[in-house]
Amino acid sequence: MTEWSPTRVRAALGAAWLTVIAALPGCVRTTDGVPIWTGQPAKSTAPQSTTSNSAPAPGIETTLPDRMPPDAFACLPETTGIGIGTVAMVSDAAAPRLTVTRPDGWTSESGQRDVALTLAGPDGLAGTVTIAATKLDAAAAFADYAASLKRSKPDLHVDTVGAPFCGYSSQKLTGSYLGPPGTLEFADRITHIWTNTDKYLVTIHFEGPADAPGIDAAKAALMQDFAVVIP
């Protein structure tokens, strides 16, 4: 799997896309030579989706997709200098392409089908990045993910907070569950991303033994905002 720093990603992709995208409406700002889509998703007039009858799901952005220029950065967060920018993509040509942060000292490999990356760190720490098409809106997709997590993890304890960025609905789930070696800590960053043709649930998953050295630093690196390119 190709491993690029965020600066190299900007340089490599920006030159190829600038000529095409600069002439298109909505993309009027560049960062280090890379065109950034500045058009805003249209605000929905429909009620915000909820996961219960009383409270809205955290991290939900009530928006409708706008038409995106081809191969434009829909999101290019500021870099923190933590970890290594690593490209994550699947074979689905309509799926968003990401640059996520791989913790220092970790390795990564391309996955199959909806799995864009598998990541491995020291002391049993591990992670995956998935990019899966979904027919659900953000709130329903998040609720379905949480229900699946609860079914698959024994003695699950989880906290959920909203973490929207770049107009996308996003949540961070952190907690613990019982595994074969004992208590495992985990963290998930789930984000609902629309493209010009479909909707996708992006999941960055992290887990490892609760007493593993470096677990907090690795978790912080993987749970950062990430760059998004819409094909």
Keywords:
231 residues; alpha+beta; seven-stranded antiparallel β-sheet; four-stranded antiparallel β-sheet; globular
Can you describe this structure?
The chain contains 3 helices and 15 strands. The longest helix has 17 residues. The chain is α+β, with helices and mostly antiparallel strands and 231 residues long. Strand 11 and strand 12 form a beta hairpin. About 22% of the residues have low confidence. It has a 7-stranded antiparallel beta sheet. Strands 5-15-7-6 form a 4-stranded antiparallel beta sheet. Helix content is 17%, strand content 39%.
Oligomer: single chain
Shape: globular
Question: Biggest sheet: strands, sense, closure?
Answer: 7 strands, antiparallel
Written as H for each helix and E for each strand, in order along the chain, the element string is HEEEEEEEEEEHEEEEHE
Q: Roughly how many Å apart are the termini?
A: 20 Å
